[in-house]
Design brief:
mainly alpha; globular; 261 residues
């Protein structure tokens, strides 16, 4: 990571530090919730813009262009879901139920990004080394175990708390527990095949982002299932920071390719 990427990440973290500060100062819950929602929306949209800018570095018809397009669409989809989430809370003055229409857009992130990763791998024609398969499969196994265990725990806690658990809620909960680990798996798999390359080094920054995104999603599911999630809590930092890392990875990739050209 070069100096400009570090500075970019530092600037990205400032609004998140303010969110923590507002919480420490016991600021009004509605103010914190509004601020958190705005930060999350902006983080997703700005990150998507960086992905689309990087997309334009590649020629039309290049699979790398398609790959970055799908990654950008995935982050953009999450941002659209967050807009719906924010408007629901703003209009109804209530916490968004789980599951809700927003979950469609949130889960589409994993689907779009996995498609994008496939196109990136296709364009680079790189073989995944044996250690890459081993590390990726180990991470997938651990992530699936952890995510499914957390999901099961969340559903049990919700039942004990008297929360209504619908069949759709169970399905959505486990969809998150499967899609997010798969997202991390494919990202690690791609990065391992490009280790040391001009793009591979930048993708490891993206991996950190998706791991953070994965962690945020799993704890979010538990809190939503138990009815204890409140917008503006510390967990709300995970997604904007994850999108910051994705934006930095996109920016660093563009910078590296521009210098090479």
């Amino acid at each position: 990571m070069n100096l400009s990427s570090i500075v970019m990440l530092f600037l990205w973290a400032i609004p998140l530090l303010l969110l923590l500060l507002f919480g420490a100062m016991e600021t009004s819950g509605s103010v914190i919730a509004t601020y958190s929602n705005i930060v999350q929306m902006l983080a997703a949209f700005i990150s998507a813009i960086f992905c689309f800018i990087t997309m334009n570095v590649f020629d039309r018809g290049d699979s790398s262009r398609t790959g970055w397009m799908f990654i950008g669409l995935g982050v953009l989809s999450w941002g659209i879901g967050q807009i719906i989430y924010f408007l629901y809370e703003l209009i109804t003055k209530q916490t968004v139920p789980f599951p809700f229409y927003t979950d469609i857009f949130f889960m589409l992130l994993a689907v779009f990004v996995m498609i994008g990763i496939y196109f990136l791998w296709k364009s680079l024609k790189s073989e995944v080394p044996m250690w890459g398969w081993i590390v990726s499969l180990v991470i997938l196994g651990l992530a699936l175990f952890w995510a499914i265990s957390l999901s099961k725990t969340g559903l049990v806690l919700a039942a004990q708390a008297g929360e209504e658990i619908t069949q759709l809620g169970i399905i959505v909960t486990y969809l998150y527990a499967i899609l997010d680990p798969l997202l991390v798996f494919f990202t690690v798999l791609l990065a391992s095949s490009l280790l040391g390359g001009i793009i591979g080094n930048q993708l490891w920054i993206m991996i950190a982002g998706f791991i953070l995104y994965f962690i945020g999603d799993q704890f979010f599911n538990i809190l939503m299932n138990t009815g204890t999630y409140k917008t503006g809590g510390i967990i709300d930092i995970t997604w904007p920071l994850a999108f910051g890392l994705i934006a930095v990875a996109a920016y660093a990739t563009k910078s590296a390719l521009t210098r090479r050209i």
